[in-house]
Amino acid sequence: MSKIEMKTPLVEMDGDEMTRILWKMIKDELLEPYINLKTEYYDLGLENRNETDDQVTIDSAEATKKYGVAVKCATITPNAARVEEYKLKEMWKSPNGTIRAILDGTVFRAPIQVKGIDPCVKNWKKPITLARHAYGDVYKNVEIRVPGAGKAELVFTGADGKEIRQTIQEFDGPGVIQGVHNTDKSITSFAKSCFNYALDTKQDLWFATKDTISKTYDHRFKDIFEEIYETEYKEKFEKNGLEYFYTLIDDAVARVMKTEGGFIWACKNYDGDVMSDMVSSACGSLAMMTSVLVSPSGVYEYEAAHGTVQRHYYKHLNGEETSTNSVATIFAWTGALRKRGELDGISELCSFADKLEKATLSTIESGKMTKDLALITSMDNVTVLNSENFIKAIRETFDAM
Ligand code: NAP
Ligand code: MG
After folding, report:
1. Span 264-283, pLDDT tens digits
2. Atom 24 of ligand 1 has which residue's CA nearest to it?
């Protein structure tokens, strides 16, 4: 059988620790035997980020803008301990943060569902995709611990010097105050990313805020979504038989529990943070979750939602056996390859991605899995495989297909 040829290179962002080990195994066992992989390689491993003064991260994001599709391995976000461990020149910023700032995107995360690993919510038959706005609100807040009696005011001073002023509270004793913001620009790109992703994946889009209480702030989100939908997306949604609807966050939470899934749930930054944790926990494991950053200009970066699995890596370095789940990293590759196939009109690449995903899920459904899944499965008689043998088992399933 001849290998599948690619046209445009994928931007390949290599990473750290256990996921870096899995990365190579996946390429060697599951990709390179079948595809003449064309990638532009960026080594985002911490050592190389340190050597290049983190320029490599910026270069990889710029390359993503140029080519349109990237696949990223999990990377270490340095803290004080890492600075010591890797003798870093400085505490480099989170690569994901740097890349998101350059690509300006929304993060979409969806559980990978498989028979035998059942969601706690029984009627969830299809994955629920969370679309989390990744800018502003409480994540970029300013807070004051009010020491005692006094007046708190909200003041905006325009570029022309004009003031808008409102009383927040007349305090008669100690308390707390908080200032948060967002921008029309960021909300607009959030909205566009959500509408594009819904069209792309042919799923309905839900959006919810607390606009009955937050009549200006949350209402602005609602209005921007509505305006963009009406002017730019309504026709396309109708043509594809898709629905966009806005509802109150309380109503959305109640409805989510009663649906069978299969839609995109767009959330403000904080709601997205907690709701994605809820959805992923209800579905079993972080290693069974896809994650893609979509920019409003239509650039895609696929990754795993989990980290570098440090504890497993140290075992591996000690020569001990590991059973690390590679599903999310495999799905990062298949997501990126499928998108590349779609953009370049290479249908073999798209069917390869479909087939590899199917082989991965069938392997688990046949009872062969890593330890994390064995602990939560409802299946009897499972075989727990080590990191390498799990990937090899997927290859056997794939070849048999
Ligand atoms: P983590 O790598 O997600 O791992 C936390 C724990 O979750 C692991 O110790 C393991 O539990 C379990 N786990 C996660 N992924 C797994 C997998 N694929 N298979 C099996 N078990 C899995 O989080 P962390 O240990 O807090 O962070 C490690 C490093 O990753 C940090 O340096 C952090 O900066 C980085 N990080 C990167 C990203 C990213 O690049 N997107 C995201 C988050 C964190 P057991 O040990 O109990 O088996
Ligand atoms: Mg969280």
Report:
1. 999 999 999 889 888 888 88
2. 307
